[in-house]
Amino acid sequence: MICAIYRSSKKEGMYLYIEKKEDFSSLPEELLNSFGKPQFAMLFNLKGEKQLRIASNDEVLNTIKQQGFYLQVPPLPENLLNSLK
Question: Could you tell me the pLDDT band of residue 32, with boundaries at 50, 70 and 90?
């Protein structure tokens, strides 16, 4: 399955994966408001050999099939993680 990946115009490091390019109909309005205007980044083949960095291709594919989208949020800064321990 080829999905479209968009970066957030409001939050650095936040990405949205959807099944069809420019089809935001499955997204909750609250998500679109906090995400900002989606900026197209690329098309990606989730069934291909290339793997995503943050999540597994299967996890993204299954989430898109279940809820219509996958939201990738940026990881917490390393020093913040250490301060919470």
Answer: very high
Q: What is the pLDDT of residue 77?
A: 67
CB-count burial class (<10 Å; 0-12, 13-18, 19+) for 68: middle
Angle made by CA atoms 76, 4, 61, in degrees to the nearest 5: 70
Torsion of CA 3, 75, 31, 70, to 10 degrees: 30
Q: What is the mean pLDDT of the chain?
A: 90
What order of strands is seen across the sheet that includes strand 15-18?
39-45, 2-7, 15-18, 69-72
C-alpha 61/C-alpha 81 separation (Å) is 28
**All structural domains of the chain:** 2-84 (3.10.510.20)
Q: Give me 75's structure tokens.
A: 């990881």
pTM: 0.86
